[in-house]
Design a protein that fits this description.
Layout: E1 7-10, H1 14-25, E2 30-34, E3 57-60, H2 67-77, H3 81-88, E4 90-91, E5 96-99, H4 101-114, E6 118-122, E7 136-138, H5 146-156, E8 161-167, E9 170-172, E10 182-183, E11 199-204, H6 206-218, H7 240-245, E12 272-278, E13 285-288, H8 297-304, E14 315-317, E15 320-326, H9 329-332, E16 338-339, E17 342-347, H10 357-375, H11 388-397, H12 446-478
Parallel strand pairs: 1-2, 1-7, 2-6, 7-17
Antiparallel strand pairs: 3-5, 4-5, 8-15, 9-13, 9-14, 10-11, 11-12, 12-13, 16-17
Helix pairs in contact: 1-10, 2-10, 2-12, 3-4
């Protein structure tokens, strides 16, 4: 079946780029609309597609016992552009998949520009898309332009929920004191591009840690505008000083936990650790892992130079804060990501209520496949809920908590406290039977039992994904 009418994708971030690639791969023409550089955002610095504005890490790449790694593997098997670009621009990062952010964006841009069915259009789509665009994916992300945000809110009758997202600082490598900071991955674990010594670790004793906490708590912070004052944070990206406010030990059990890291000077775990992760292929830039912040720039320099090994740190980028928005998706979207009030519009990425680079791209992958199937005259089929892809889709389109005391006159869910969600095993359906014995007949206990359960869930997910991909392929071949 030859298709000439294009699908329009608004937004050239990870989700929009992935959606466009999936559409073109299905043989359907696509126009990808990106407003940069005509109009920039508060967080972006370049005009490249799929620019990474926060961390350069896609998190764990281990698929058997980590839900993020499982999502990576599912996307690879579904011909993901984002994962393909990540794999060719990866950097050492222990058990994680980290990328050179500039090379990654350039690779995504190159592949889309080279595709014969992809047209890239630069310029802002203000308000709702033109009425003659019959099949549209809105993947404008957490920094959706005000005009489009207002149009969406007016159309749905729902006010978009909002939260703050913070950015971690990046440091020049040659300003780090490597006589203090040592290279190691936690427990020596090597990742997809790693050696087992992929992080720079800055140790703290108890006195140094307590002084650091005092400095975080007393530092001058960014003052919010009146309209931002009641905007909550997303728990997966809390500013470091907000974590400190929740308790003096919070950071030692979070981004500053010292477990699995032997200080070569003492042979023991330090009291606390600040980890730095390589941020570019040259190894000249390193970012502070988990150190998103809303401190003012001068305060960041003062406070972060208290960290052993960073006394003379020079910052290529200081931390920042931006306001993100997302839909009340369980109420306004159907199971194929279409807006109930205007089904010609689909949504993808962070605006749907997923959190994380890979999760955003995953929803872009699904939206692109659904839109292409619809354009080809097929009924879109969602992946099984037993897969990471299906579990994320279920969460944002109806799998969230339902308010029991609210009347239900129709089948639409009544979502309570809907917030952004990373992929995790808690979103996948439980196994029919929880494993109790190992392969060699020994009874599983505690963590061993939990790992065995995750492995079985991951194996089930990939088997069910293969069936879904096979069915999709047969359907496409039949066309």
């Amino acid at each position: 079946m030859t298709v000439t009418t294009p699908i329009h994708v608004i937004g050239g971030g990870l989700a929009g780029s992935e959606a466009s690639f999936q559409i073109a791969s299905a043989g359907v023409p696509v126009v990808l609309h990106e407003m940069r550089p005509t109009r920039m955002t508060e967080a972006h610095k370049t005009e490249g597609l799929a620019e990474l504005v926060c961390s350069n890490s896609f998190r764990s790449d281990e698929w058997e016992t980590n839900a993020v790694g499982l999502l990576h593997e599912e996307m690879r098997r579904a011909n993901s552009l984002i994962m393909a670009a990540g794999d060719v621009t990866k950097l050492p990062a222990g058990g994680a998949l980290a990328v050179d952010r500039d090379a990654f964006s350039a690779e995504v841009t190159r592949r889309l520009e080279a595709h014969p069915l992809v047209t890239i259009s630069r310029g802002e789509i203000a308000g709702l898309p033109p009425s003659d665009w019959e099949n549209v994916i809105v993947a404008t992300g957490p920094l959706t332009s005000p005009d489009l945000s207002a149009a969406i809110a007016n159309l749905t009758g729902e006010t978009e929920l909002a939260f703050f997202d913070a950015i971690a600082p990046v440091i020049h490598f040659d300003s780090i004191d490597t006589s203090v900071a040592w290279r190691a991955s936690r427990y020596g674990k090597a990742g997809p591009a790693g050696t087992g010594a992929d992080y720079l670790n800055c140790p703290m004793n108890r006195e140094e840690y307590e002084a650091f906490i005092d400095a975080l708590l007393s530092a001058e912070k960014t003052v919010f505008k009146e309209w931002e004052a009641n905007t909550p944070y997303f728990d997966g990206c809390l500013p470091v000083e907000v974590m400190a406010e929740r308790g003096r030990e919070t950071l030692r059990f979070g981004p500053m936990k010292p477990v699995g890291l032997d200080d070569p000077r003492t042979g023991r775990w330090p009291y606390a650790v600040v980890q730095l992760r390589q941020d570019n292929a040259l190894g000249t830039l390193w970012n502070m892992v988990g150190f998103q912040t809303k401190m003012k720039h001068a305060e960041q320099v003062r406070v972060f130079r208290m960290i052993p090994g960073l006394e003379h740190a020079e910052f290529a980028r200081l931390g920042g804060l931006h306001r993100n928005t997302y839909l009340n998706s369980p109420r306004v979207l159907d199971g194929c990501l279409r807006m109930k009030a205007m089904p010609r519009l689909r949504f993808a990425g962070q605006i749907t209520g997923v959190e994380g680079y890979v999760e955003s791209a995953a929803i872009g992958l699904l939206a692109g496949r659904f839109a292409a199937a619809e354009r080809l005259g097929r009924h879109p089929v969602a992946p099984p809920a037993t897969t990471a892809l299906g579990a994320l889709l279920d969460h944002i389109t109806g799998g969230h908590i339902v308010t029991e005391d609210e009347p239900r006159e129709d089948a639409s869910p009544r979502a309570r406290s809907f917030q952004p969600m990373n992929i995790n095993y808690g979103l996948l359906p439980p196994l029919d039977e929880t494993p109790t014995m190992s392969a060699d007949g020994k009874r599983l206990k505690g963590p061993e039992r939990g790992l065995a359960k995750k492995k079985l869930q991951s194996q089930r997910a990939l088997a069910d994904l293969a069936n879904w991909l096979g069915a999709s392929g047969k359907s496409a071949a039949a066309e």
